[in-house]
Amino acid sequence: MVEQLEHRGTFTRSQEDYLKALYLLGGDQRPVPTRELAQRLGISSPSVSEMVTRLSAQGLVEHDRYRGQQLTREGRKAALELVRHHRLLEMFLVRVLGYRWDEVHDEAERLEHVISERMEQRIFELLGRPELDPHGHVIPTLGGKVRSVSHRALSDCHPGEKLVVAGVSDDDAGKLRELERRGLLPGTRIAVTAGSEFEGPIEVRIKGRRESVPLGLARAIFVTEAR
Predict the structure, then answer these.
(1) What is the DSSP letter of 184?
(2) CB–CB of 194/202 below 8 Å?
(3) 141, 134, 227, 153: which is closest to 195 by C-alpha?
(4) What is d(CA 36, CA 39) in angstroms, rounded to the nearest whole number?
(5) For 150-164, what is the mean pLDDT?
(6) Res. 10: pLDDT tops 80
(7) pTM for the complete prediction?
């Protein structure tokens, strides 16, 4: 039987937000500086330090005053439960309720804290047990496993490369709308025809047409090699 995550109701919403933010910043692999975590959460560094002290006392975070904070095994489990909820909710909102992919992030942020494990499982089954959310991000399993992926930002690619859009950053709704307008959706095959020079755009070919992708957008697109 799959080991189910059992943290629901154990933490406050604020604590869950800290743990998820730390995970999304790579805090399960490396210490995340306090300033970086504060910027992600949109709050002051002293407030972050105060909360991290509490999470550390609960055994969820390891804190080093010089290097930053990193999730413990238990902290990672709690963060992944929330990430799973969020990404399943985004897929549910798009597929079932007809939301656009640029509308779902804020709705999922609110709902991820309150849905029950029973509802989560019903959503998962209804959607056909999806592995990815609408933006191409991996949905953690019920047991807290995350499929390994190897992506590069389009901004790091070179002329001549043939690629597939694997996922996009969902932090900016405006960028998502622009990516959709340009046809740069997960699963789209592209070819790089010219790299960025002096912070200029990257030129790509999409379905026989040329597209000039601003560097800010290219950094929000994650690709794999086409096969």
Answers:
(1) -
(2) yes
(3) 153
(4) 5
(5) 92
(6) no
(7) 0.86
**Model confidence over 22-37: pLDDT tens digits?**
999 999 999 999 999 9
- Cα–Cα distance between 179 and 181 in angstroms, integer? 5
CB neighbour list of residue 30: distance below 8 Å, 6 or more residues apart: 70
The residue-averaged pLDDT of 134-159 equals: 90
Neighbours of 155 (CB within 10 A): 18
Match 């994650």 to its residue by tokens.
222
Which residues in the chain belong to E strands, given as ranges? 61-64, 68-71, 152-153, 162-168, 189-194, 202-206, 209-213, 221-225
Q: How far is CA 92 from CA 118, 119, 128, 173, in A?
A: 15, 11, 11, 18
Burial label for 16, CB within 10 Å (0-12, 13-18, 19+), is: buried
Q: Does the pLDDT at position 6 exceed 60?
A: no
- Mean pLDDT, the chain, integer: 91
Q: What is the DSSP string of 100-138?
A: -TTTHHHHHHHHTTT--HHHHHHHHHHTTS-SB-TTSPB
CB 86 within 8 A of CB 109: yes
Strand 68-71 relative to strand 61-64, pairing: antiparallel
What domains lie within the chain, and their CATH numbers? 1-146 (1.10.10.10), 152-225 (2.30.30.90)
- Residue 9 — pLDDT band, cuts 50, 70, 90? low
Backbone φ, ψ for residue 198 (5° rounding): 55, 45
Q: How many CB atoms lie within 10 A of CB 199?
A: 8
Residue 37 is encoded by which pair of tokens? 């975590």
